[in-house]
Amino acid sequence: LRFxxxxxxxxxxxxxNVLHINGTWDSVSNSKTTTKNIYSDxxxxxxxxxxxxxxxxPLKYPKDKISKDNYIxxxxxxxxxxxxxxxxxxxxxxxxKNLSTHIFRHTHIAxxxxxGIPLKSIMERVGHNNPQTTLSIYSHVTEEMSKxxxxxxxxxxxxx
Length: 160
Hints:
Layout: H1 3-7, E1 14-15, E2 18-21, E3 24-26, E4 31-33, E5 42-45, H2 48-56, H3 83-92, H4 101-114, H5 119-126, H6 131-138, H7 143-155
C-alpha cells in the first residue's frame, strides 16, 4: 500500500479478510480523498499477520481516543498518522538503509516477485496499470532471486 492508502483505512473498508482501498489520506487538507488513479481503487486479500495487526492496533488507545471516523491507524489527535512524522522516526532507526515509508512498498513488490507471483497479480495488488512501472521501478533483483537463477542454470545438463 501507499502510505496515504494505509492510514486512510477505516474499519468499514475490511470485510471477510478483504481490504477495499477506496481513498488516500491527504495531509494538506487533513482529510480522506480519492485514490491516486482508478487502478488504485481496488480490493486485496489481507494475510493473517496484517489482520492481527489491524485487530490489535486500536487496543493501544483508550476508548475515548478512538477516531470517530473509525480510522485504524490514528495518532494523538485522532487523525491518521502524518507521513513526515513516520519518515522522521524511520530515519532515527540505526540502519544501513535509507528507511522511508515507501521502501516497504518496494520491498513488498520485490518479495512478491521473488515468490514467483505473476506480474498482472502484483500490478492489481499495488494499483498499477502500466507493467513498466512495476518492472522498472519496483522489481528489484533480490539476493534470493540471483541465487535461484544460478540454481536453475546449474540444473541444466547441456551434455545429455
